[in-house]
């Protein structure tokens, strides 16, 4: 193998962002921003499932695959604080779920909304435990005390959101898909 020349370009694993005209369709901009199947297969964390990752059924918009993708993406959006897309893609290969749907659903907990979700998870977890907590942390509280006071209700709330949101997302996709199919049948005759 010859060493690379300084003038050769190294291919990037992700699509390059090219400037778009102001009137370009949002779907074209999204298509250019999302990594391709091949780029995901080249990702170091996804190499163990790279062969499965290229299967076309994981990228088609079919009812069951999309419903599973929404469930997988919603679960991992609330279950872990970072790396959600990679973990969701990994699990999509196991559950034969739609990868774009899962990746889109992981964006529920993005840096702009994570504060709200953590606050809401704390409220739900605290209500589920039934222990009223204070909303201001004393200055002399160490990490273990803080986690016992605020962490466990938050973890419980995020777990409930993960499981409940995944189940609701799956059922909602199935319901909406069925309603869309019934509406098309009625329009035809």
Account of the protein in words:
The chain is mainly alpha-helical and 189 residues long. The protein has one domain (38-133, 141-188). It has eight helices and no strands. Helix 4 (63-79) packs antiparallel against helix 8, helix 5 runs antiparallel to helix 6 (99-105) and helix 7 packs across helix 8 (143-188). The radius of gyration is 21 Å and the shape is globular. The protein starts with 25 loop residues before the first helix and ends with a helix. 24% of the residues are buried. The model has no long low-confidence stretch (mean pLDDT 82).
How many DSSP E strands? 0
Which range best describes the helical content: under 10%, 10-25%, 25-40%, 40-55%, 55-70% or over 70%?
Answer: 55-70%
> Can you count the helices?
8
Poorly predicted segments? none
Please tell me the total number of domains: 1
**What structural class do you assign from the helix and strand content?**
mainly alpha
Largest sheet: none
User: How much of the residues is beta strand, in percent?
Assistant: under 5%
Overall form: globular
Spell the H/E element sequence.
HHHHHHHH
Mean pLDDT level: 82
Give the distance, in angstroms, between the N- and C-terminal Cα atoms. Answer: 65 Å
Task: Output the radius of gyration.
Answer: 21 Å
Gist of the model:
With 189 residues, the chain is mainly α. The mean pLDDT is 82.
List its salient traits.
single chain, mainly alpha, 61% helix
List the helices and strands and how they pair.
Elements: H1 26-33, H2 37-42, H3 50-53, H4 63-79, H5 84-95, H6 99-105, H7 114-129, H8 143-188
Helix pairs in contact: 4-5, 4-6, 4-8, 5-6, 7-8
